[in-house]
């Protein structure tokens, strides 16, 4: 939308210069003023379209409909000039509309409609208001510009398609990276680590805390991390405590041998 707005404003600038040029062009006064008025209408239209594009596009059903409407106005203006000025070929205007259609329109049916209108109106204008000797050469120009605009349209469509795929891949990668960062932050928030030297008794394996009290290893670790302990007896220790278990009347698990 920003690109279409800038194009409309630049076309408005162009018609400002064209209006000034036509006012001082060496033609009869009536024709000079009429051409200047025609340029003035065009510049008002393009300036208005550039400034009101944000409101016009939703009402027209999309940006390409807006561009097609402007191209239609340009074609009507070209036919009007060729009918008004018999003998003067305004072919460059038709070629400009064809090339702009190839650049601005991405829809295939809109592009085909614009090209058909350009070719049909150009050939009809050449047949009605141009010297017959100039018709073959100008017809060749119109048809070659149609081919050129088709090549431009195809190339830009493929380029935009490739860029869209890359942009979609970037969005997927960004979503994955965002999810991984979120998961990593959540994991880091749930992790508490023990660092530095831990003073531990070589005999009873108790740990001295910062206040100088001796704690069981389980209590020390549990206070400083999210770790939880599940107690059991290893096979080597089971032999040493088997008699104590029997004296206390605690049966050993099946399959265990003292």
Protein described:
Keywords: Membrane, Transmembrane, Transmembrane helix. The chain crosses the membrane at residues 7-25, 31-53, 65-83, 112-130, 136-156. With 258 residues, this protein is mostly helical. The chain folds into two domains: 2-172, no CATH class; 231-258, no CATH class. Helices cover 72% and strands 2% of the residues. It has helices spanning 2-23, 29-51, 53-60, 63-84, 91-104, 108-129, 135-189, 217-224, 235-247; strands at residues 207-208, 214-215. The radius of gyration is 41 Å and the shape is rod-shaped. The chain starts with a helix and ends in an 11-residue tail after the last helix. The model has no long low-confidence stretch (mean pLDDT 81).
Brief overview, please?
Keywords: Membrane, Transmembrane, Transmembrane helix. By secondary structure, the chain is mainly α.
Question: With helices defined by DSSP (H or I, 4 residues minimum), what is the helix count?
Answer: 9
Mean pLDDT: 81
- Provide the number of structural domains: 2
The amount of helix comes to over 70%
In terms of DSSP E residues, the strand content is under 5%
Q: Structural class, from secondary structure content?
A: mainly alpha
Task: Please summarize the sheet with the most strands.
Answer: 2 strands, antiparallel
Q: Tell the overall outline.
A: rod-shaped
Q: N-to-C terminal Cα separation, in Å?
A: 84 Å
For the largest sheet, list the strands in their spatial order: 1-2
Question: Poorly predicted ranges (pLDDT <50, ≥5 residues)?
Answer: none
As a whole number of angstroms, the C-alpha radius of gyration is 41 Å
Keywords: Membrane, Transmembrane, Transmembrane helix
Transmembrane segments: 7-25, 31-53, 65-83, 112-130, 136-156
């Amino acid at each position: 939308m920003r690109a279409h707005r800038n194009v409309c404003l630049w076309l408005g600038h162009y018609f400002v210069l064209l209006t000034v040029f036509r006012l001082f062009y060496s033609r009869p006064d009536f024709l000079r003023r009429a051409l200047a008025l025609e340029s003035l209408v065009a510049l008002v239209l393009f300036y208005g379209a550039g400034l009101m594009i944000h409101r016009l596009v939703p009402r027209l059903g999309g940006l390409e409909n807006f561009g097609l409407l402007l191209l239609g106005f340009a074609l009507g203006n070209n036919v009007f000039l060729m009918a008004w000025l018999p003998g003067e070929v305004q072919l460059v205007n038709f070629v400009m509309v064809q090339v702009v259609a190839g650049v601005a329109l991405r829809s295939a049916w809109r592009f085909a409609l614009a090209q058909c209108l350009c070719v049909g109106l150009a050939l009809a204008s050449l047949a009605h208001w141009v010297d017959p000797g100039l018709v073959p050469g100008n017809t060749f120009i119109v048809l070659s510009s149609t081919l050129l605009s088709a090549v431009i349209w195809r190339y830009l469509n493929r380029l935009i398609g490739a860029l869209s795929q890359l942009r979609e891949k970037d969005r997927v990668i960004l979503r994955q990276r965002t999810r991984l960062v979120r998961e990593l932050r959540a994991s880091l928030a749930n992790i508490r680590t023990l660092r530095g030297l831990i003073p531990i008794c070589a005999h009873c394996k108790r740990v001295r805390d910062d206040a100088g009290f001796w704690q069981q290893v389980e209590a020390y670790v549990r206070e400083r991390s999210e770790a939880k302990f599940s107690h059991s007896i290893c096979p080597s220790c089971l032999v040493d405590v088997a008699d104590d278990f029997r004296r206390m009347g605690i049966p050993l698990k099946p399959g265990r041998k003292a």
